[in-house]
Model the fold of this input.
Amino acid sequence: MNENTKARLNGLLLSAAHKIGLFLAMTVICLPGLWIVLASFRPTVEIMAKPPVWIPEDLSFDAYVAMFSGVGQGGIPVIEYFRNSLIISVTSTAIALAIGMAGGYAFARFRFKAKSSIFLGLMLTRTVPGIALSLPLFFVYSKLGIIDTHFGLIMAYVALNVPFTIWLIDGFFRQVPKDLAEAAQIDGCTRWQAFWQVEFPLAGPGIASAGIFAFLTSWNEFALASQLTRSVNSKTLPVGLLDYTAEFTIDWRGMCALAVIMIIPALVLTFIVQKHLVSGLTSGAVKG
Amino acid sequence: MKGWRPPAPFLLLLPAIVVLAAVVIIPLILSLYSSFTPFRLTQPASLYTFVGFRNYARILTDLEFWTAFGRTVLLLTVALNVEMLLGLGLAMLVEKATSGQRLLRTIMMFPMMFSPILVGFQFKFMFNDNIGLVNNALQSLGLTDQAIPWLIDGTLAFTAILVAEIWSSTSVFAILILAGLLAMPKEPIEAARVDGCTPWQTFRYVTWPFIMPFAYIAMTIRSLDVARAYDIVKIMTDGGPAKRTELLWTLVSRTAYADARMGLANAMAYVAILLSILFTVYFFRKLAAARTQIAAEW
Amino acid sequence: MATVSLEKLVKRYGAVEVVHGIDLDVADREFIALVGPSGCGKSTTLRMIAGLEPISGGNLRIGGKIVNDLPPRARNLAMVFQSYALYPHMTVRENMGFSLKIAGQKPEEIAPRVEEAAKTLDLTHLLDRRPSQLSGGQRQRVAMGRAIVRQPEVFLFDEPLSNLDAKLRTQMRVEIKKLHAKVQSTVIYVTHDQVEAMTLADRIVIMRDGHIEQVGTPEDVFQRPNSKFVAGFIGSPPMNLKDAEIADGHVVFSNGDRLPLPSRFRDRVTAGQKVTFGLRPDDLYPAGHGIHSGEDADVYRHDLRVILTEPLGNETLVFSDFGGAEWVGRMLNPRRLAPGEALPFCFDLSQAHLFDGETGKTLRG
Ligand SMILES: Nc1ncnc2c1ncn2[C@@H]1O[C@H](COP(=O)(O)OP(=O)(O)OP(=O)(O)O)[C@@H](O)[C@H]1O
Ligand SMILES: [Mg+2]
Done:
């Protein structure tokens, strides 16, 4: 009897500890983000107040209004930045997916010489730190005159994303049994049709999650963008954040507002595919 | 005979190879070349003076470089290990939750959506000695009455960077390990419990061997872009104060753009690339071994 | 002493109750088989005993001690899972010795016990393989070996043979029987294969929808089923169960066909009562091709038309038409029968069963 009570008590304690642990972990994860959101709604005096004002007294959209009110009135060209970011991220993701699908399919379905070395070689191109790449890339791009263009950044991001995309998509195609495509071919499809009718839909969720990763990488990239862009022609949001910094001061409120603008698309997109994301990642990466 | 037709895999891989060659390989070859010259952005002609290994020789004896190198390795080692442990803990906490799994998983992925540069600003804001959340909280709670100079003191700044880096990347580990936990068959765990294992023993002997490859995957993915830390450091301290948080990458960028010594910077970059490659190849090996084991046994 | 007692044991998943307060006493060293249709709660009950599923209500005693809240490791039992649940990353030897290693035994103590169990199960040559390198039957034996090595007080089996082919299953059934004779532990064995239950168990527990329908020796449940459900569940091919009505000392079927009401049921029914009449195929045979169990007076003869036959070699199952429904009979020393052929059949009414038409409970005294 006593033993049972002890065991039950133990269980209760454990589950309480689990709940507390979970709560703490989630708090630590969310807090920085929430703090930024909160700060974007507060007046600068309140952010700067000493002693700190914990309970916000004066929430407003002023920071957002100011941000959109155009250069000269305390605003930044946020619409241009957003447009650049969107064009560059979406285009480079689409291209990286197309290239990644071709490459991933090759690794998943064909045997060829030096396959694993080629695979590793492709992956290693991804390890080149952005900053190390930005030096020569800057030089090449200036010679070609594609500094500060969408095209230049798109190319760079495609190259950045292709290796990981190939890795993930390779895994997904391996998940799709070979028999299925063969069955489709016996049913009268060409190999090309078999791919689009059978293998592609089945690997779809995985390809979507590869796409998310590519998009997030491009959307958030800074090291290359900061060197390869110059003006509103091609500056992206991460680079735009620097507009809120001066030599010795930072406009925290404005920056927080821009940060919120930056996060929302990423958040929405991740939310949409979150169901496939975890399973996608594993089957893609592990079972490969 | 219609002449040589390239094999299908070659054709399929061609676009990838072309893009990577154009954007990564060729510039890298160029930078390899320039690392043997005293090239300065301000003096284009210097690109054609060949100085052999002089840049590398200078690096080898440069104390500043080796300090940054050591600091980078230290940062990566500590960060990767802590991220791995925290990610494991987080994944297990989330996996054990009986309700709200969907919400918990989404929150868990939250930091992945943050641009590293944003993480940098965010933590710079939070660790600000004057208006930062951390100091405000400590002071309001009465734990200290002074402003702790988080980003000004060398060690504290390193810690702050570490915290930011860990906050932003633990998700990657947590997500992959969670995926592993979800993919794991339940019966061996139950068998272990009946066989007399305590929860810890069950983890140690049954769960861990299964999720290890997932941890390696996370390590590999992370080592592919450890250099993301550059953005964070660049914003938080930019290598300062007085170069006490200088990492390889900030040093490279300062040498290249502030000092305009491209040749030297490229030589340094090559050392940084080598470091990345070492990390990645190491984990790739481990991953491949662990993966074949899982495929063969589970 | 490892008795196992379930006292009003309840299992709820949220608001759904799947085990409704079952009572069962398992004696020390007894072999109990839990049978029942899919989804009736056998596995759930077994897992509550193992400690893998929290108990929602009632008490569970092992060796007289209440263990409701104790973790599995404190219950000293071993379990063989349907999917075997071997540890894929350990060799057979490590799998079998794992529980002892966890219990803190020294390698030199573990080794002989593993060797011995391996010998019993004919696994000696496989000891250094991994589970992935074994056939289904071998894996099954390893799972058993893992349980034996532990020398637990209680063995739990959850459909351990269901993934094996028919021949291997028969073979392993014999092995399990021998094993029980040797290790003398209490065994609770879940199966949906009634042959396994009948051949192995000291007592059979028949479950249905989270209730226990009947507990009894194999002979009990076969010959004296308490309900229509048990009668239909035990026995293969299943008992003929036909709805009928009692009228002037006869059992009258829907189309007017009638059988005399056996005398032992005479004062247990009233005229006009709705009943279900049950007769096993063994007790319905072409004249001269079966065995009477009772006196001649209890055998009712009637001509039936053959619809279909299923020859099994040493016997033939004969489907024929009576009382507006199809009945299965069993023909020993078979000869060829043509469909449509009419021949005299014997109904051995001494073996007939009668169940209440509404409750399905037996009307036997
Ligand atoms: N986690 C759960 N949540 C809700 N209901 C459950 C859960 N697990 C089992 N059940 C339900 O409990 C009932 C009993 O399940 P159980 O697995 O014990 O059946 P069983 O008798 O072992 O069947 P089988 O012969 O198919 O193995 C089933 O109706 C099942 O749907
Ligand atoms: Mg079951």
Q: What stands out?
A: The first helix of chain A runs from residue 2 to 40. The mean pLDDT of chain A is 83. The pocket of adenosine-5'-triphosphate (ligand 1) is lined by residues C 13, 16, 18, 36, 38-44, 192 (CB under 6 Å).
